[in-house]
Write a structure and sequence with these properties.
binds iron/sulfur cluster; ten-stranded mixed β-sheet; about 400 residues; 12 strands; binds S-adenosyl-L-homocysteine; alpha/beta
């Protein structure tokens, strides 16, 4: 395989989904092949179950071989599958060409006649290997940041999900950028991947079926509203007040609650779409009466949708999910404030699954000393935050990629 600079300047082998249609056409022409081959290649990539060039039988062997020498068919060296929830959820651990690992999760739901919706299949994609934001309840945050994914590496997670579904005679209906990483801190690649996914000759997925979730990167939310207005925005809020949100989403020190809400409202006005707020429910941390009252008063009248997600346990935190009854009470309190609320069951839990957990396991556990130290820091920091004090420093991840050993 020829080493060619992948977008982003790194020396990774070039992969098919990293090429625009024009770039692909130029490569095909350089190889001396006819221009109609471009359509055959894109159909093979997006509308077949081929996992390598040799599976795209319309191309014929000589062209398959020439292409295989130039361009990787898939961005992934290895795809490891784990099934959970009686086959409703498939977790994919994907090894990239430089050995970085990311996760994608495929979730299937049956038709819901009450809501008039047909069967759904949603793929949750990663936008980065690791994440630099460092939310302390998140397994990906704990890993620290490895690198941004390219547009092709993001799109290929969707290609694989579609192939799996095709073998089951199902259709992919939705894509959510809620896997590893902060999509709006890799915004150019994320936008380029959206362009590939929505291009009729490539992914052909409706813009409105795509959701980008952010921990609150304000300039990114503004760009999303201006440049990709059909995309649904989800904001990971977790807390309505700054001292607690500083702890739960360290980026809050840069863009505090008010700025995030203002940007989300601006998005909603510009796009005519309602914002979804995500709140990971953590026992005794963000589910106290004062927290839910602050959340209801912050979002009252916004017409937003709120997803309450029970926290998935992760090794390095002393925290656990809120009691189901408490989550139901909060849901009702928010409904009374005019919001629509969904209480999410956490999909894929059996597979060890909040975002990044599988990859975190593969990266190797942080040392027990580092975990114990981090837990102590979190207990101390949350005690301060719960009393309304803003702390100066975010808590560094305990590793294995992120720092202390
Ligand atoms: N970085 C983006 C998108 C990826 S995280 C963001 O933070 O929005 C996707 C969602 O999973 C976020 O709402 C995040 O808060 C949530 N999440 C992370 N760790 C979790 C855990 N242990 N339990 C439940 N939800 C979690
Ligand atoms: Fe990053 Fe999102 Fe995890 Fe926070 S919750 S560390 S932003 S992936």
């Amino acid at each position: 395989m020829k080493e060619t600079a992948a977008p982003g300047g790194s020396q990774r082998p070039l992969s098919l989904s990293d090429l625009s249609v024009n770039q692909l056409a130029a490569r095909v022409s350089d190889l001396g092949a006819e221009s109609y081959r471009v359509t055959q290649i894109l159909d093979g990539a997006w509308r077949s179950v081929a996992t390598s060039w040799s599976g795209v039988t319309t191309l014929g062997k000589p062209l398959q071989e020439r292409l295989a020498n130039e361009i990787r068919f898939s961005a992934f060296d290895e795809v490891e599958r784990q099934e959970a929830e009686d086959g409703a959820t498939t977790k994919l651990l994907l090894t990239l060409s430089d050995d970085a690992k990311v996760e994608a999760v495929l979730m299937r739901s049956p038709a819901d006649p009450r809501r008039g919706s047909g069967p759904r299949a949603t793929v949750c994609v990663s936008s980065q290997a690791g994440c630099a934001v460092g939310c302390p309840f998140c397994a990906t945050g704990e890993l620290g940041f490895t690198r941004n994914l390219s547009a092709g590496e993001i799109q290929d997670q969707v290609r694989i999900a579609r192939q799996i579904l095709r073998t089951e005679d199902r259709e992919l209906t939705n894509v959510v950028y809620m896997g590893m990483g902060e999509p709006l801190q890799n915004i150019d690649a994320v936008f380029a991947s959206i362009d590939g996914l929505t291009d009729p000759v490539r992914g052909g997925i409706g813009q409105r079926r795509i959701t980008v979730s952010t921990s609150g990167v304000v300039p990114g939310i503004e760009r999303l509203a201006k440049q990709r207005p059909q995309i649904t925005l989800a904001v990971s809020l977790h807390a309505a007040r700054n001292p607690l949100r500083d702890l739960l989403v360290p980026l809050n020190r840069k863009w505090p609650v008010e700025a995030v809400i203002a940007a989300a409202d601006g998005h909603s006005r510009a796009t005519g779409r309602r914002t979804t707020y995500e709140v990971t429910m953590i026992d005794g941390i963000n589910d106290r009466p004062e927290d839910s009252a602050a959340l209801a008063s912050l979002l009252r009248g916004s017409g937003a949708h709120v997803n309450l997600i029970p926290m998935n346990a992760v090794a390095h935190t002393p925290w656990k999910e809120s009691a189901p009854e408490r989550i139901e009470q909060i849901a009702n309190q928010l409904r009374a404030a005019g919001l629509t609320v969904t209480v999410r069951r956490n999909r894929g839990r059996e597979a060890g699954a909040a975002c990044g957990q599988l990859a975190a396991e593969k990266a190797g556990a942080p040392t027990p000393v580092a975990v114990a130290r981090r837990r102590e820091l979190l207990v101390a920091a949350s005690a301060a935050a719960l009393q309304g004090q803003r702390t100066a420093q975010p808590i560094a991840p305990s590793g294995p990629l992120g720092g202390e050993s």
